[in-house]
Amino acid sequence: MMRLLGLKGLVLITLLTLGIALVGGYTFVSARSYVSGMDNIMAGQLGRAAMQSVAYELGVPGPREEYMVTRTWAQQPETIRAAFDEAPSDPGTLYKAHVGGDGPFGRLYFAVRQMTPAGERFVTQQLLSPPSMAGAISPAQGRLVNLILIGLGSALVVGLVVILLWRRISTPITALGAWAASLNENNLNQPVPDFVYPELNRFAELMRNSLNTAQQGLQREQAFLSHTSHELRTPISVVRNNLELLRKVQTTSSREPDPREGEILNRIDRASLTMKNVTETLLWLGRDDRATHPCSDLRLDQLIIDLVDGLRYLLADEVQLTLDLSPAEQYLPESPTRIVLGNLIRNAFQHTRDGTVEIFQRDSFVRIVNASRDAAEPAGDTGFGLGLKLTERFTERLGWRYVNEALSSGRRVEVTLGSADVPAEDAPLNVNHSLTGVRA
C-alpha cells in the first residue's frame, strides 16, 4: 500500500482523512448541541409555566423573568429591593443576589444601574435558582464535561496520528541517511536497498549514480596520472643516460671542449632531474596504501646535506645559505622523505633571488625559511608551482604535520616527518653542521 501511495500521497491522504474526521466530528457535536439547546429552552419554558401554576395555587409569588426598568430604585418591587442590601451604585456594573437557597422557590436576582440619554435607569430581573433550574431542565455541566472530554480525545488522536506518521516517514529516511554515510568505493556498485517509498528509492539511486560517476572520473584520473608518470620515466631515463654518455664523450675527446656545450648539458641535466623528481612524486601520490611505503633507518641530517648539494645549482646570486642540523637517525620511508624535503628545498632555492635560506633540523622536525632582502619581492609560490602543493598533499596522505606560512618577504615551512613532536626553540642543541655559503 505504501509503495502505491508514495511519500507525498501518504502525507496528503493522512492529512485529508484527519481533517475530514475532525470536521465531521465537530459538526456532529455542534448539531447535537444545537438540538440540546433548543430542548433546554423548551424545557425551561415548560418548567416555568408549571412553577407559575403551582405558585398561583399555593398563593405565593410566582417566578418572574421579565425585565423591570424604573427611573428610581424605590420603584422596583419590594422582593427585588429586599434581595439587595442597597441600590446599585456603579453604573454599568452587574449586581447579583441569591435568595431562598437551592429549593424549588429559590430566586436569583440581577440588577444594573444604567446611564441613558434620558437619565439613569435601574434594570432588574429574577430567575429560578441555577441549581434548581439545572436539575429541572438538563445537566448543562455534564454537557460541558463531555465537550472537554471530546476536545481532549480529539487532541490525543491528532497527536497519535502525527507520531505514527512521523515514525512511518522518519524510519526509511534515517535508513537512507545511514546508507549514504556508509557508501564507499567498495560497496558503491552494490544494489540500492529498498527504502519503502518510491521517492526515497529514486533519490538513493540518483545519489549512487552521482557518486559512481565521480568515482569513475577519479579512477580515470588516477589511472591517467599513473600511466603518464610511468611513461615519462622511460624518456627521462634515456635523457639522463645520454647526458652521461655525452659527458664521457667530452672527457675522452681529443678536441678542446666548448664551454657552451657544458652549459647546455647542465641545463638539460637540471631540467631532466626536475622532471624525474616530479614524476616520482606523482607516482607516489598515485599509490593508495600507506603500507607500500617501506621504512628504514635514515640519517636525516645527511639526507638534507645530499639534497642541498644536488640542488645547489638553483641558488641565485647573493643568496646566503645556512644549515643548522643535528645528527638524527629516524625510521622513515626513504622515498617519500626524499621527495618532501627535496620539494621544499627546491622551492626555497628557486624563490630566493637575493636574500637568505635557513634550514633547521632537530630529530624528525625540519624548518625551512627563505627571505629576500627586497621586501617588495612577492612571497607567493610562483615558478615551480608543484613544489608546495604536492608537498601538502604528500604530507596529508602520510599523516605528517605540515605548516606553510607566508612571511612579509618570503615563506616559512615546517614539517614533522612521522609523529614526533616539535622541539622547543630554547632546548639545548647538538649541532652537527653549520654551513654558511654565498654564491657569487
TrEMBL record:
It catalyses: ATP + protein L-histidine = ADP + protein N-phospho-L-histidine. Its EC number is 2.7.13.3. The chain crosses the membrane at residues 144-166. It is a multi-pass membrane protein. Pfam families: HisKA (PF00512). Residues 227-421 form the Histidine kinase domain. Its main location: membrane. SMART domains: HisKA. GO terms for cellular component: plasma membrane. GO terms for molecular function: ATP binding; phosphorelay sensor kinase activity. It comes from the Bacteria. It is found in: Cell membrane. Keywords: ATP-binding, Cell membrane, Kinase, Membrane, Nucleotide-binding, Phosphoprotein, Transferase, Transmembrane, Transmembrane helix, Two-component regulatory system. It is an enzyme of class 2 (transferase). PANTHER family: SENSOR HISTIDINE KINASE CPXA. This is histidine kinase. It comes from Halopseudomonas xinjiangensis.
